[in-house]
Amino acid sequence: MTQLCIKCGFIHNCYCEAIPTIASDLCFTLLTHPNEFQRDTNTGKLVARMVKQVNIREWQRKQPDPYCLPESCAFTPVLVFPTQDSVPLTQWQAQHPSTSNFIVLDATWQEAKKMLNRSQWLQDLPKVHLEAVQSSQYQLRRNQQAGNLCTLEVCAQMVRELESGDDANAMLTFFEQYLQWFQAERSGHALPICSQKSTL
């Protein structure tokens, strides 16, 4: 009898052996909207299984997260979000060679905008934006707007711009296959899963 995998939560299409291990030195904080913890379409959890320095924190509107504040974090916190005062990611990295704590808003784009608008402490952080944004392959949610990337795609693009195109491609190749396994899991049938787990 097929059993539910306690790690990925899938019954028919466990993908655990296919998750690539990405040798990234980037530090990510996924500031997660409370609703995301209840969504099976969340991709932040996949990033946390690929990259070693990933912290998942729950966003609270009135309470700043200590891990995201300059005075209480060993790394420099910087918000990854396109705004009028954001700078290109590569420019930031060139001007701040010490380790940064890259804060990614893990939510729908509509929720992410509200998180920023409702949290003055987020607005006060320095901000960066991605430069060469490709089309998203994420189609699991409705009302996806052109140019918007999911959390995994944002992190992969950051790896591409700051570290390694090969590692970024490994993340996206896995994600492309994951989307097929996810749809098959929803339908209650299994697809072949070939292990691609590797350390790049």
TrEMBL record:
<dbReference type="InterPro" id="IPR039262">
    <property type="entry name" value="DTWD2/TAPT"/>
</dbReference>
<dbReference type="Pfam" id="PF03942">
    <property type="entry name" value="DTW"/>
</dbReference>
<keyword id="KW-0819">tRNA processing</keyword>
<keyword id="KW-0808">Transferase</keyword>
<dbReference type="GO" id="GO:0016432">
    <property type="term" value="F:tRNA-uridine aminocarboxypropyltransferase activity"/>
</dbReference>
<dbReference type="GO" id="GO:0008033">
    <property type="term" value="P:tRNA processing"/>
</dbReference>
<keyword id="KW-0949">S-adenosyl-L-methionine</keyword>
<protein>
    <recommendedName>
        <fullName>tRNA-uridine aminocarboxypropyltransferase</fullName>
        <ecNumber>2.5.1.25</ecNumber>
    </recommendedName>
</protein>
<dbReference type="InterPro" id="IPR005636">
    <property type="entry name" value="DTW"/>
</dbReference>
<feature type="domain" description="DTW">
    <location>
        <begin position="1"/>
        <end position="187"/>
    </location>
</feature>
